[in-house]
Amino acid sequence: MSTRVALTIFILFMMSCHAQADLTPLQQQNKIRGMVLYNQYKIATPELTIAAEAGDREAQFYLAEELRQQNQYITADAKKWYMAAAEQGDYYAIFKLATSKSDLCSTMNNCPEGSKKPGEWLEHLWKIAEPKANSGDGEAMYIMYLATTKLDWLEKSAEAGYAQGQWLLANRYKEGERFFLPWKRQEVIGQWLKASAEGGFPKAMLEFSGYLYENGGDLSVARHWIEEAAKLGYETGVSSYGAYLAHAPSLYDFPLDLVKGYALTSLLTELDGGGNIKPYVDEVLPEIAAKMSPGQIDEAKVFAKQWKDSHPPLSFYPDKLGY
Predict the structure, then answer these.
(1) CA 161 to CA 281: how far, in whole Å?
(2) pLDDT tens-digit profile of 4-19?
(3) What is the value of pTM for the model shown?
(4) Cα 160 versus chain centre, distance
């Protein structure tokens, strides 16, 4: 098994170890491929369907999300898969069923048999999430915040060490939630972004690096977190790391490394689904290449392959609850 495949499997396992079904190797392979495509804003329906039909609740949720996003509303088929995941206790599927305002199948009266009303799904969500939240489960606390909008739950989630909750809390404070003296607000925002970055959340890694840059922090630490976000395959991390290494533009005092900068930027060409990355690559890659010799470009191509083979696939890390 290649290092790249092993890394992909490990990351998906860590993200969803509580959501595994008994999949065959072929079904698991399709789930992994489907998740990679979904996270790159590419069509993943065929691969996710294979794992969803095998009973994998995470695949069921993401298949429902893909179908909803393709149609801009919850179709009967999308609702079927939300319900399948919800019946296995998936918080996010239940949340969608409880809160969605784009449920066309309800309007058309053609929802799957046994469908609950949104209020019933919300009651079910509280029923399964609140006991876990009260026992210290940070993700359950995060879900309780989403379901109730009570900031206390989000603060508890952050304090319990849930990295995405820490990132969201930092942003809620940035938006003005809670009373702080101005200098204290900035300090607390930085503390939670740092905690989230240390917890492995790539969006927080980049935001914390920006926080350090804007507030006169240690740029070596900022550079570290940009690199760490890139190593996780986060699209914005890879594009930022590549651009700064190539001084296109020169920020964070990265030493000039045209070979690595070109290599990393060139990897973004595979994001040819959604995300609108192509215009960026078409502009920046020639700008970097103009500073390089043919030999350096050949060296960059070798480095790009080495990076791709030893790091997780590129991902936009979309919000699990989508739009």
Answers:
(1) 36
(2) 544 554 454 444 444 5
(3) 0.89
(4) 20
